Amino acid sequence: MTKYLLAIDQGTSSSRTVIYDERANAVASAQQEFRQIYPKSGWVEHDPEEIWDSVRNTMQEALEKAGITMRDVAGIGITNQRETTLVWDRRTGECIYNAIVWQDRRTAAHCRELRERCTDDVIAGKTGLRLDPYFSATKAAWILDNVEGARRLADDGHLAFGTVDSFLLWRLTDGAVHATDATNASRTMLFNIHTQRWDDELLELLEIPRSMLPEVLDCAAEFGSTTEAGFGSVVPVCGIAGDQQAALIGQAGFEYGMTKSTYGTGCFVIANTGDAALQSHNQLLTTIASRIDGEVSYGLEGSVFVAGSALQWLRDELRIIDSAPESEAVAERTGIVGDVYVVPAFAGLGAPYWDPDARGAIVGLSRGSGRDQVVTATLQAVAYQTRDLFDAMADDGMAPSVLRVDGGMVGNDWFLQFLADILDVRVERPANVESTVLGAAYLAALQCGLIDHLQEASRLWRCDAVFEPRMPGDQREALLSGWAAAVARVRGDR
Fold first, then answer.
1. Neighbour count for residue 324 (Cβ, 10 Å)
2. Which of 171, 191, 421, 437 has the CA that lies 20 to 30 A from 370?
């Protein structure tokens, strides 16, 4: 009898469930969007119950589409938006505040204050990260400091902290398991990536009780099981990884130097650095790419906060396109725009700038500029931001010659050709662009015994399209010079 895998991809703007067969073929899927909440400028929140409802709903819908029940599922894999932070009451399972999203910048002042007591070098040395509002630690501290009675509840051992995977695991197991995996732990700014333990010095610095923290397990592990009462069957949760690490797995990026870039809400580039925790001199991040059987593989990562969400902005706020795919036709008829630059610093600038005070701008408008130029310049901005990351990686000794891409934006051929031109490297799009959820399925398959090792994914990876650079060098340099000037104009510390 065929056994199936159920993979949950809990993202920033939607949740998705995909059912895979034993050969990693997608059988059915379902997706549901949920609200983005913006209480103040620079604040971004999600309703935890809307997250959970969207996961439950997509699980049920995907199972129905596949014509199976939970009794046919061998194991569950989870991948998730990473740094987004939740705090809930262990006694009820209810969150005491909304989920504070990774894009949220409310703790910028707290980070500046912490920097006076603990330098970026200390943080980077322990965690591989920057002292920045992006990561979970200051978000958790904010909840403890701003929700009435939260610190007392935490001191009494009643509160649990977690990234989205931990919250989903708690709900899936009916509160029986409070755990995370090493990749998600490595994004909290509380986890020492060298000792593989929560760091006491950082917990003291942030005033976060150890009792709130989840247990840290391998990416493929026994994470507990669903309950008969809640889901109709006892099904093990077998794999968990943060979305960008899961994408690297789904892209079969197992060899040193292999690099992927995911274009979802943001843009995230990870290069596999093997067993070496490469420290960047250019404000990139050192992160855990995976931990399997206790063995850690590291990655060098660059994070861009706004990519696909810039197209959502064009659609929802400016209302100059009806859908993100429409941008491809606009860019094809417009051609490369060399005088207008969109800097989508809606949540500050990520790597390599790490400027929480930067704000977005459109630079170079003239009377002849219109809708089409702004749309095309927005697409180009995502490529320029990727080039910033590539330049930083090259200076750190990692210079990828090939980039594998995935995510919602990569169906746009015009964008991928411009990306190859700006990066001056070969860009490969896989046949299955849903690498993130596929990576979660591979982890579950490994723990369930359906595959013997992750490297089996390499046999299954297939290339759909290749984009080779063809832009003249002088044109590339002129465009990049204009981009650098535009970024300089929006920097918060200018």
1. 18
2. 421
Q: Report strand pairing: 179-181 vs 159-163.
A: unpaired
Residue 211's Cβ-count burial label (10 Å; 0-12, 13-18, 19+) is middle
Please, are residues 189 and 129 in contact by the beta-carbon 8 Å criterion? yes
Alpha carbons 338 and 441: distance in angstroms, whole number: 42
Q: Which of 9, 74, 67, 28 is nearest to 450 (CA)?
A: 74
Residue 384 sits in a domain whose CATH number is 3.30.420.40
Residues 351 and 389: beta-carbon distance below 8 Å? yes
Tell me the C-alpha distance between 467 and 290, whole Å.
28
Residue whose entry in the numeric block shows the structure tokens 């990884």: 241
318 and 232 share one domain: no
Determine the Cα angle at 376 with ends 374 and 379, to 5°.
Answer: 110
User: Is there a single domain that holds both residue 317 and residue 172?
Assistant: no
Q: Which residues contact 234 (CB under 8 A, 6 or more apart)?
A: 225, 226, 227, 228
Q: What is the 3-state secondary structure (H, E, C) of 74-95?
A: EEEEEEECCCCEEEEECCCCCE
* Residues facing 349 on adjacent strands: 355
Considering the domain architecture, whether residues 238 and 265 belong to the same structural domain is answered as: no
Residues 209/151, Cβ–Cβ less than 8 Å:
no
Same-domain pairing of 190 and 275 = no
Model pLDDT for residues 93-141, shown as the tens digit of each residue: 999 999 999 989 999 999 999 988 877 788 889 999 989 898 999 999 9
How far from 163 is each of 85, 100, 175, CA to CA, in Å?
Answer: 5, 10, 15
Residues 229 and 271 in one domain: no
Q: Residue 357 sits in which domain range?
A: 252-430+462-494
Buried b (16+ CB within 10 A) or exposed e, 385-407: bbbbbbbbbeebebebeebbbbb
CA 286/CA 283 separation, integer angstroms: 9
pLDDT in tens, 299-339: 999 988 899 889 999 998 989 888 888 999 999 999 999 99
- In terms of domains, do 400 and 284 share one? yes
User: 216 - beta bridge partners?
Assistant: 180
Residue 248: is it exposed, middle or buried by C-beta count within 10 angstroms (0-12/13-18/19+)?
Answer: buried
pLDDT < 50: residue spans in the chain: none
Query: Taking Cα atoms as reference points, which of 440, 455, 453 lies closest to residue 6?
Result: 440
* Cα distances (Å, whole numbers) of residue 308 to 268, 304, 431: 11, 10, 20
**Tally of domains within the chain:** 2
Burial code (b: 16+ CB inside 10 Å, e: under 16) for 456-479 equals ebeebbeeeeebebebeeeebeeb
Q: Is residue 436 part of a domain?
A: no
Q: In three state form, how does the secondary structure of 165-188 look?
A: HHHHHHHHCCCCCCEEEHHHHCCC
